[in-house]
Amino acid sequence: MGKKRKHTETEALANGNKEETAIERPKRTLLGFKDGSTEEENKETSVVTFRNKEKVLVTCSRRISFRYRHLMLNLVSLLPHCKKDNKVESKDAKGATLNELVELKSCSSCLFFECRKGKDLYLWMAKCPNGPSVKFLVNAVHTMEELKLTGNHLKGSRPILTFSSNFNKEPHWKLLKEMFMQIFGTPKDHRKSKPFYDHVFVFSILDDHIWFRNYQISCPHTGTQKIDRGDLEKMTLVEVGPRFCLNPIKIFAGSFGGPTLYENPFYVAPNQIRSLEKKQKAGKYAKKVKAKTRRKMHQLSNPLEVDEFADMWKE
Questions:
Q1: pLDDT-based confidence at 110, cuts 50/70/90?
Q2: Residue 185: inside a domain, yes or no?
């Protein structure tokens, strides 16, 4: 029988083989691999970068009309960072329900299309769960399918947001501008977005209304003709759609409610407009009735004289 090796000899052989083959890996801990560097050195080397994780939940109320539903689907196609959900019953407790849905979908904002009486469309734009939130009345709705415009841009591309100079005049317009930038701006390096800027979202204020337009950035690429970088004279804008107009009603401090930060003094509800139109139509009929009664009273107060020859031909 051969002699057994001593324990010290086996350790020396094992260490020699390790040195020849590879360097020993650092020990693994719960926080990663443990190397000889200190925590201060790791903090200096690591650079903290901000990552925009904005996600928008887009949903609507029940009994919404086809045109407003198509408008919602157009916005869903324009926003690659949005998530679509089932319809929500628009009752008094819709705020709590929508906040729960936003939390379940891991979103930070919400666009809620609320249709009333099958005619009036209200848009709730909210930052969840702490607010603020805005309620708009949507007018002058034109969808992509309805307009049949010639513009066409890449789906999922990032838009350029442009605002008119009126947004910097008053504080409530500044707040709305910041909300539009956060909700409609596509986050960088989003998995569903494409790293191209080929269309423009235009927000302009006219008569205390916000008008939305979507334009494609068109430039010639035929043959050898190419546009130099920064040459904006040859670029043109072609409208894509959709179109709509937002009339702000109230701005709330919370999500779908809370203290009122701003109330539009020039807002007139659609029900009041319809009632005034009915009163105007009813006024025409009332004028006719009054004219008939005046004619009868005039005939009674001014009777005609008796005709002497009225009974002459009866015999």
A1: very high
A2: yes
